[in-house]
Fold these 2 entries.
Entry 1:
Amino acid sequence: MNKIAVYPGSFDPVTLGHLDIIRRSNVLFDHIVVAVLNNSKKHPLFSVDERKTMLEEATKDFKHVTIDSFDGLLVNYLKKTNISIIIRGLRAITDFEYELQIASVNKHLCHSAETCFIMSTNEFAFLSSSIVKEIAQNGGDVSSLVPNVTCHALQEKMFVC
Ligand code: ADP
């Protein structure tokens, strides 16, 4: 039986931390669907299409990874696609409380949902899309934190990198 997992998130924009989680999940599961959440309340810097295009480019050499997007509740996406495994990355203790709450709510709403947490590598434990945007907005170099495609996209958005 093929084990398919979904890796949901904002990916605004994709970082090397996200790619590390995708690469490591790829070893554990037969297929990974990276699902970009279309959440306008978060006022993202990049549109869903831009985020998907960046992810497609950044994962083009990975086998068995596809990119998709969804609106609203993740559990509805799980039911629609018939996927029950959710991958989430865990960085520091601060991620834990929020992730535990989300995983518990998803389990409550969809009994078959199982959340699989992957610890970040030490190298990327401090890395988030928000910090990347903050550095870039202030003219800092983010080239060691994000794939080239993100670097170019940030450059176009705010003339940095
Ligand atoms: P969300 O808004 O859903 O938290 P993100 O794009 O910020 O979306 O993160 C998606 C997932 O990737 C989350 O599980 C988050 O904890 C994880 N993640 C983000 N950055 C890293 C990183 N540097 N290392 C490991 N996991 C990460």
Entry 2:
Amino acid sequence: MHRFLQLAVAIALGLAGCATPPPAAGPANRIAGKVTSPAAPAGQPLPESPVLPDLNADPGIVEVDLYAAEEDVPVLSGATTRMMLYNGSFPGPTIEAREGDTVIVHFHNRLSVPTSVHFHGMVIDPEHDGGPWNLVSPRQSHTYTWTARAGMPMTAWYHAHPHGTTHLQAPKGLAGLIRILAQADPMPAEFGDTSLVLTDQKFDLNNQIVPDTEFDRFNGREGDRIFVNGRLMPKLVLRPGETRRLRVLNASSARFYKLSLPGLALVQVGTDGGLFETPAVAANVLLTPADRAEILVRAPAQRGTYTLMALAHDRGLGLRETFDRPLMTIEIAGEPTNSPPIPLKLRTVAPISLAGAGSRTFTTGVVRSAATGMLHFVLNAQQYDPLRIDQVAQLGSTEVITINNVGSGQHPIHLHNVQFQLLDASGVPIPRWEDVIIAQPATQTRFVVKYGLDEFPGMFMLHCHLLQHEDDGMMTDIFVNPASTPSP
Ligand code: C2O
Ligand code: CU
């Protein structure tokens, strides 16, 4: 088994090492169909968001200051763009902590509208997370305190999560990465740690963000400009023979990224809730909105230029990009080096036991509002209402959750404050931690969750992470009762 894997990885990297010379021309030549040329100068070095300074001397506590405000910033060439940003940074600054650390976020709302901060992926008390039910008013502050669960180093993120207006805030820039470092990382330090935050946007001729159309509201909004860490087509430089660890986050409203790196191998080593058990060589890696992936890229011995692509992807709902898009250039240059080999065993992920598991089903749908006559995306035939408790579960119990997608489009479904495991076709948990999965059309997608993976009861949100669907009402909640309380 291990030998097979070793071989597979070796073959993939070997192939990468003696790849045919990279194409002489730029990414445009590699793409069939329409190409949107970047409006800002392409090929600038890939920037990385600053890490929020830790204001607390205690090594076990990370204490940071975070504010949200509207800012005019240069995003395209020419006029500045009015964005909504955390601490003036696009994307937001990175929150970095170590597994087991307590994180204190002093948040200040300098917007003219209510907002909240959701720590997406973190296994924390819903009471100390932000959501549609606990808004921070303009000019108000709120302190979020939580602990990064020991044993769960991961790539998570934080974003605005107000009621009904997340699609008007998060994609304007209110999103940033959370890097929870491992106490003992199986990944060699030589691989580095580079984050890629993918966002897309639509602008008018004055470089201002345009409102959603009716089509966007129904299908999810995709922008024609794609940013990596806030830049159009930036360039990442690797040394010949270098292996680099990439943490990729899809922070877009609705766009799916089918990542591919023609000429080089992508070795996926992790997903939402941290590392896999073993590396997996992938022809491409599909990232739905809110999804994360950890990927290793090994530079060949020869200098050259490669292009990270988002391949055409049909997500149903009548929306289909029929052409590939370039995201970023990877240039192999400088002094050769020889990174250590990729470890073949990353960690052990114990499968959640299905013994005694209950079950719960959520069915996708569209309803017409009696009041307005408008159509809305829903779960279990109900539009989300923050004042209503939809489902009740018991802390410590295990459940198989079925997403019964009866529609024609893919929905990225996210459950707050836990990490769960997808079940394969034969009903066996896949040993990987996830918090967002694709519900394929005309399919029942099943995952297993254990409430009490943490010790926290409270309100767990479940929703589609296409932000237009989420805000339209395709969201529900599960109230998890404390273990000692009988369920009503
Ligand atoms: Cu990333 Cu309820 O969200
Ligand atoms: Cu959806």
